[in-house]
Amino acid sequence: xxxxxxxxxxxxxxxVFLLLKWWYRTAxxxxxxxxxxxxxxxxxxxxxxxxxxxxxxxFNHPLFNVTIDKSCSGFNFWMIAFLVFYxxxxxxxxxxxxxxxxxxxxxxxxxxxxxxxNSARILSLLIIEQxxxxxxxxxxxxxxxxxxxxxxxxxxxxxxxxxxxxxNAKLTQSKMDTTY
Length: 180
Hints:
Layout: H1 4-26, H2 33-47, E1 52-54, E2 58-61, E3 66-68, H3 75-92, H4 96-132, H5 137-179
Antiparallel strand pairs: 1-2, 2-3
């Protein structure tokens, strides 16, 4: 924590998190279409399969006997990624404007990250099922946890590097300017 100023930015993120989690409890496949459709499109592209959508079941891929629905939306990953990105931006921001924009930036970064991670998770599970002819709930959850955790760490490290590298480059440049 840099300053007490950062603390005032934590409250909106907690409120957004709680409101979205509350909303998710009653959300259906149509409400989560903004997650389901892009992920389904990526799965279709990489697997050359087609799907049918309906409100009750989500996107059904008959070729793989797989359904991408609310439980596969990646919503919880989105919320966790949002908080990680938000706190990284608020804590590493050099300007007040960046702290003010941290909320929408974090939601957008987390959304894109979720689409990437969730697509990788589903594709990994399809490959494992196809190659091993084996899939069960424990394997499904284990692969999902591994993929999500790996992507969360990678995305955090990239964001942290970008935030600190840019600041360090400016600091180095300003030191060089003052020595000449």
